[in-house]
Amino acid sequence: MTLDNGRWLRIPGPTPLHPRVVAAMQREMIPHRGPAMRDLLGRMLAKARQVHRTDDHVFVWPGTGSAGWEAAIVNLLSPGDRVVATVCGDFGERFASLGERFGLSVTRVTVPWGQAVTPEFFAATLGSVGAVKAVFITHNETSTGVTNPLPELARIARDAGGMVIVDAVSSAAGLPLEMDVWGLDWVISGSQKAWMCPPGLMIAGVSARAMDAAAESGYPRFFWDVRSMLKSTAAGSTPSTPPLSLLYAFDAALDVILEEGVEQVWQRHATLGERVREGIAALGLALFADSRFASDTVTAFQPALGMSAAELRELVRADSGIEIAVGQGEFADRVNRIGHMGWTDTPELDATLASLARGVDASLTPKLESARLRA
Length: 375
Ligand SMILES: *Cc1c(COP(=O)(O)O)cnc(C)c1O
Description:
The protein is of the alpha/beta class.
């Protein structure tokens, strides 16, 4: 069995490219100052605002998700500012420690990996810290397959007067995300996750309140300065030469998403997430995330007893050519992960589950045999 068009790539990013995205990139360059660029940028950002559900701004920089953390910090904050950060896995920890490198006073709301940050715990921490300038919330923790209850956490943060900075790298265009209704100020994502594009674009939803904060920030910045970005995009261009092929890709991906419908895309991810979790549980493997907060874009689970995550990945690769991921941090070898975001549907996920079943069998057979011999 082979899966075409890169659909064997079942890691949580980069994700398979939609064929229309691939086709869109086969185009010539255009002048990045001129009418063609103005058209491309105008329609692309309008569509990106629709998917972010905002009437404020969406901007696109060359970069990745990690650049998004840095851009948010240097635009919205000043050295010494107090922030609270949710930490329920590797990405939350990276965002929090980046804040420390920039001289912010960071209070972590830490929960064990596999758990979500609950509104009660978050509110209690915010209450004990006092006034905060901003909160960092990981919407979907890709290292553990956990989705934090973002609308509730955002409301608590806003009530406490903090700006809401959201790492939506593995949720935007996959999970429900309502920038305006939920009051989110800076929403970070990267092209290679649910946007079904190649790596290389950092996408940021920016509220009007965040634009005001950018005028007050005490950090020096040039490339990430959202004020220059606003000025240029208003004039139909970007501050520096944009990665045009990636803009063509993102523009095409947005068409695909809007033709399916934003809510239909969310629903498809919910259905597929459920299917993957059921399939894994049916193999007798333990799901890693608290089931109440299980992610619909990435599923983490424990390999069969006595097996390492790298071993299971190798068995699946040898069986079907499908690439699944191992864990991160201290769970690197104790957890496997399957990505199901972006351009993805039932056939390739069922093929992945079937290959996983054969991998688990293959790993158990020698062990059962030696147990029989010992008996
Ligand atoms: C992938 C990911 C990142 C980092 O993105 P890069 O594009 O690799 O820099 C950050 N946060 C989350 C939640 C992610 O899934």
